[in-house]
Amino acid sequence: MSSWNNNNRYHSESSYAPSAPSLPDQHQQPQPHYSNNNNNNAPSNYHHAPPPPSSNYGSGYYGQVSSSSYSFPQGTNPDVIRTFQMFDRDQSGFVDDKELQQALSSAFHNFNIATIRFLIFLFKDPRQPLRIGPKEFSALWNCLGQWRGIFERYDKDRSGKIDPLELRDALYGIGYAVPGSVLQLLLSKYGDGSGRRVELGFDSFVECGMIIKGLTEKFKEKDTRRTGSAKLSYDEFMSMVIPFLVSYD
Amino acid sequence: MSSWNNNNRYHSESSYAPSAPSLPDQHQQPQPHYSNNNNNNAPSNYHHAPPPPSSNYGSGYYGQVSSSSYSFPQGTNPDVIRTFQMFDRDQSGFVDDKELQQALSSAFHNFNIATIRFLIFLFKDPRQPLRIGPKEFSALWNCLGQWRGIFERYDKDRSGKIDPLELRDALYGIGYAVPGSVLQLLLSKYGDGSGRRVELGFDSFVECGMIIKGLTEKFKEKDTRRTGSAKLSYDEFMSMVIPFLVSYD
User: Fold this and answer.
1) Where does the record place Polar residues bias (chains A, B) (predicted)?
2) What is the helix (H) or strand (E) element at residue A82, kind and residue range?
3) Which residues of chain A are modeled with pLDDT < 50?
4) Cα separations (Å) of B7 from B11, B12, B15, B34, B43?
5) By the CB < 8 Å criterion, does B11 face chain A?
6) Distance CA A54, CA A51 (A)
7) Ordered alpha helix ranges (H), B34-192
8) Which of A165, B8, B63, B235 could link A2 by a cystine bridge, Cβ 3.0 to 4.6 Å?
9) pTM of the entire predicted model
10) Element (H, E) at A131
11) A67-245: which CATH architecture?
């Protein structure tokens, strides 16, 4: 039984996850208030005022089909342009998965290739093969910058790792009140498989954040009345989910 | 717009995917009949008589929570027991991801570790960490045997690869009439990312098959009236989907 349906507070616009995380410097960080049902692990019980949506968060399946032109958006940080040009070794105007892995590792964190392919799928022009052009590269770069700010804000003990409670608070801080059971299921995918407490590095944190954000946004598109429920056809359901499955190749 | 909703034939029990693929020797293989709307790439337009469901297909999220006892089901092939014992090197009564990778590679195909972790998640006792006991090992072994039979049946040119049309026919043959758009989306996750025509080896074929089967079964649990649509809460949706996301670690 869904906790949404157990909690009338969740049948309101303001208590639903917002359409996108805001930029770190725009974050509202409400102190979580718990309900009186002693289910303190369920973020669904938060009273939650979501932050304002961000407009420049990703592309591709996020709705905006961006064309991979060879130009960067106006005002793109010159370092981003230089990095793209440095790693677009064949001057194709695109970076493929391996080039992107090197580019992001130089500036952010060492991402494994499966994660890189996942990021490309989230940001690429759907008409393109597994590669991104300047616009998508710039959007991805900005997005990772936002996630890095969020990571640093919620890694309170500066351990370079986010623990499950910090992850829950980080997602909540950007407007995603994710039920504890859902987070637990997601986190069971990480770690060494021993069942020991999971701590997420930046790369896994970004994956978790993008999975929660992306799936929630997809669901919201179908839950137009913000009831916490949506009627989906089989085709819609499959088409919503499959983009979040990585290639196992 | 979902092709289910465009096609009244799909508002019937018999045209929905069955609850599980049958054993290869039980397969009905109806010849696809296309509707007259010239949408010949859409399996949703098949008239489809699903085969009878199989009862011994997997465990874990398939609904039956199987306990990891140290005993094999009665009638387990001695080769399966020997293989389990051979790769359970620490005699723990369980095989972990790396042990399973070696065991399956010795008998079926070289699966990459992400695929192995995915298979474990599908079959393991949810109360267990990332490892499986004799019962789950036996169920997984039987399941892979079924998929191998299906693979060999539909790899008509004996190329050792399944092309997109062969995949569509294979899924249809075991009762999953998957819309072409959904298969195309799934296949875009495979291959070298160049956008060239994808051909699936046995490991990718098993992944695709289990993703389609698993997600379809999950959806069907919510579509009790077999209308091709289901009302899902946010929590239900997230909990249905997350098990199909692999760990990127």
Assistant:
1) 1-17
2) helix A78-87
3) 1-69, 248
4) 8, 10, 11, 12, 12
5) no
6) 9
7) 78-87, 97-107, 113-123, 134-154, 164-173, 180-187
8) B235
9) 0.73
10) strand A131-132
11) Orthogonal Bundle (1.10)
